[in-house]
Amino acid sequence: MRRGFGGEHQMLRRDVKQKKQKKSAADVLRTLAEKAKSQLQDLGPVGLTQLLHACARLPPLRKHGMVEGILERAHDKLDTFPAQSLSLLVHACARMQQKDVPLLTKAAKCIAPLLPEFTAQALAMTAYSFAKIEVRSEILFYLLAEQIIQKMPLFSGQGVGLALQAYGKLQIDNKKLVQACRKHVRALSDELTLWEVDAIEQGFEKLNALGPRNLSPTESSERKIWARWQRLRDVP
């Protein structure tokens, strides 16, 4: 009985300690958020996007009007944002499902002339982020496609999947982009992970760029994976 009581006592002490630690962490985050919010006017593009990215990763930072304050300040300074900061801004908004249409529309206009400075990864993430929050700009996605095609040899399987899913979600059928992705997928097919196969296949399917699967429900998982791999390699 004594050992049982001692065990319960230890568990109780551990629970109290964990609650104190959580409360302490929450207090620290709240203090940091309040301090950062008071200094938003002094932050430039890099500082604003880094803080917004931190909010996207740490939900407690989103309280007390922090995100709204950052986006308001970003809107005023958007014309001065470099390419990387613009990409991070859109990605963070998508991650938090912040569909600030005026801000994102302005961001699209600012991004367009800077697209040649974007890396392959930034191009894919920018397209995917705009699509995730369903902000559609025909001009931007046309220019994005041009840059993606030009830098296609630098794309990983993940990048191809993100780009295809973005265009598929918004139903933007850019045939040159689809053809470039098909060609690159053939070159990457032996290196693709299962996650990448899933993403690429889903993107092609959303754009109606693949034929039927023709897989039997009774086939083994290994055979199904191999068949899907071949399906990507054999796209016309």
UniProtKB/TrEMBL annotation:
The entry's cellular-component GO terms read: mitochondrial matrix; ribonucleoprotein granule
UniProt region (Disordered), positions on chain: 1-23
Q: What is this protein called?
A: Uncharacterized protein
Q: Which PANTHER family match?
A: FAST LEU-RICH DOMAIN-CONTAINING, LD45607P
Q: Which GO terms describe its molecular function?
A: RNA binding
Which parts of the chain span the membrane according to its record? Answer: none
The Gene Ontology biological process terms listed for this entry are: mitochondrial RNA processing; regulation of mitochondrial mRNA stability
